[in-house]
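Input:
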Amino acid sequence: MPEKYHIKTQAVPPRRPRIGKFGVVDWREDCARCHNCVKKDCVYDRYRQEMQYIRDLNDANVLFFDCMGCFSCVQNCTKGLLSLSINPAYERMGNSYWTPDIILITWAQAETAAIPVSGAGYRGKFSGPGFDAMWTDMSEIVRPTRDGIHGREYISTAVDIGRKPPQLRFDGIKSSTILPQLIDLPMPLIIDMMPKSYRLPKLLPIFNAVAARTGLIAIVDSRDWELLGDEREKYLPHLAFYLDPNASIPPKDILQKTLLVEISESDAVEQKIKMLKEIHPQIVVAIRVPLDSKGEERAIELAHNPAVEVIHVVADLNGNQIGVENPKFIKDMTLNIQKSLVKSGIRDEITIMAGGGIALAEHMAKQIICGADAVTVNLPMLIALECQLCKCCQPGMLCPARIDEISSGYAVGRMTNLISAWHNQLLEMMGAMGIRDARRLRGETGRALFFEDVEEETFGKLFGSRKRN
Amino acid sequence: MDQEKGINDILPDNTTKTFVPQAEVSRLTRPAPPRYRNEIAKYIIRRSSDCKLCGKCAKVCPRGVHVIKPGYKYFAAPQSHLCIGPACQKTDHDCVALCPQKALRLVENPMMKALGDCRWTADMILATWKMAETGDPPSPEYGYQYETGDSEGGFDRIRFKFPEKPPVELNEDEIDTSLELNRRADGRPQIRIDVPWYGGGMSFGSVSNVTQLSKARAAVAFNTFTCTGEGGYMERSRPYDDHTITQIATGLFGVREETIQRVRIVEFKYAQGAKPGLGGHLLADKVTPAVARMRETVMGISLFSPFPFHSVYSIEDHKKHMDWIKHVNRRALISTKVSTPSDVDMVAVGSYSAGTHIIHLDGGYGGTGAAPDIAKKNIALPIEYAIVKVHNFLVQEGIRDKVTFMASGGLRTAHDIAKAIALGADGVIIGTAELVALGCVRCSRCESGRGCPRGIATTDAELCEMVSVEWGSQRIINLYTAWRKELVQILRRFGLRSVSELRGRTDLLMHLDYNNDLERNK
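Output:
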């Protein structure tokens, strides 16, 4: 059995004052200065920590505005002067897709590398759009033992990136099939390029270092080669160049040290693959396909081309189809591609990577169930650095997360922690599903429950036709 | 089903009865006021500096919102939770309108936004507190929208189709809310509970012993049950043995033959709705010396129950487990608690075949003392779907009346209970609502550190003292009383004489997202 994939982590505290969900509003002018003030009884000791912060403004690492929302002080204040409210700074973070809750939960994982655990049951909507419109399934009794991250059995999250032969051919007892090059990723995650509005040169070497530390791969625009820092050549096996149609191909000696390269979708795909293979026969070539109105169609068409090894479908940052009025969501588009390739009998030959809208570990698992072999992520890596997605990344704008001040150790540590937490959550979900191998999870819709289907099967039979989507 | 023969002849004495005198607890409703000084209110009265302290507001308000304590010149903080808000404007005692100085202003409490969540809305929490305080459903004057939450699906989009007039006029005392738990006719005791619900498993460790005892006393008062969870069975609970279910979960924490012999129902927990397929979690901070002693483990070490039972891979294995317990305790009924995967219907029928008396489904949105967030939303079905699925399959297999089917996982109100029964369950199991009755605000901080800052889901000795057993019992008794009143009202409006007549009556329901245009046979 291969060595178990394990990411070494260490707590990396935040640099900036925390932003909590709740804040206590304190009407101090009426305060009676009780000797047994309720603030002293805070179970979490938040008031004392807040006062410490006010005294020592240079130390930003103390907790501040991090009320846990238990209402105890509010309800016990002798004069009823305290009031709990939602922190406006919390509400301002992110957007409708990258919600403040997603940002907070990402920060927590980046700090501790721990799986987020809480009490009191689920607090959200019954279902919702996108990934919230599906549940993963589990089996109660009749299945082999799986213990998730706490258990004794080995759950593999490794996936293969590359083209696989439809079958092996044998000449006598010897295989006559020439096996193509495959990249063995220890978990189904690739760090993708940042969207233009968030592309910060300082982060490029950091992504590369994180990929090396976690055994993964980071995709980098080939034109940014010079920005990758002094140690760039050391990390080449963990770097995949994205070759823009207008960019020149990297030098031979550089390209030959990489395992994966990504090219833009264009009519000259075959030629470009041939050219790259001539330079480096073992390299795996991925084709980046934006999921616009024709994206699914083109991805399916490319998959039928025997020269194509990997297709990387990319939706917009929120997982939506690009440039259409009523966009489909990435999980549905991936599922359509998956179904089409299964129907054509070629699904196992091609690798599909999917990106856009992957914001939480659960999205990774669900996207794989919907047909991706691996997912690509970008914004969560940035959020791990305390980014609030305020879009103030332009030169001259003040970044609330002070990304320009980060140290390499801090950034690599936070991103590594986040990836580790995601890996552990993937193990948890696979454990619950009774799936031992991430390769088996791909397209395993039998281990998923889709809102529309379950509603139709259950309430459709009781209440007739459905009014709204 | 073969009847077990001659059990009185072959049983060891200690498995047939409880020797410890059992507690008696009155079902009487008594006021159980909130234990915090400032109860959270939906509306608050703001008093400006124009107030001349004339005291007219205190005189006109029949609810006692404005208080000047004897000997004091100034008003104390208003008792806003007693205020009925805008509904008062239609009365002749509206303090805002009657204030000579126009110094009072009624506003919606901005804290409502910070309280609760989509499933347990602020209104639902406040209404549950009101019920726990008074034993009555909250007056409509308070304006609480508490019958449904804001989750935009499931129970929150299902409504009852009440007829304008009940088809049969019934008095409340003619309506039966009791539920039979043993339908197998296998010679084991018939157990009938007075209300179609009982308390869910909460282990010592996940909640305090005060919380456990409060639940147990309320169970005695209503002739129903509470459940120990998997954290062992306290000696202090002996007077409540006849109303306690002890749980055998995958970690087998605190499970001993002596504890199994104490009870009338034993529950096998295969999975929990909040974290299906992941086993149990009790994080290190909550493993205090007392908890460690009870569970026979080491203090300060996190406890993880595995998933699933490592000795159960088939229905036949499940049956062997049951046979073991049925042998150890010949008077016990067996409950099988499972979560809600897509094949839950098969699991339910399998459990019946193995000999269970009660099938307990715990849906995906159920409560927990600690669970990975990724599990809470994303694994297995919400209970609304699972109830329909299992009920229909049990009917199809011809065994619907041979097994008791209980549902849990996200049932918050009497209306949810009635809807679950109308969808096909016999009864339900509740958990979070009892904790809300004790003052829980669902801040989700039960899992670590000293545990619950409200003194409910904690094992910290100091925090536990925030709740007394007497007060806690009364709050839950009051909640049960209010719920029973609401359930009786629902049955009365439909002209149903018993809660069992409501079971599977989906024709009495409508769904707001559907056209409700199916032709029905019923």
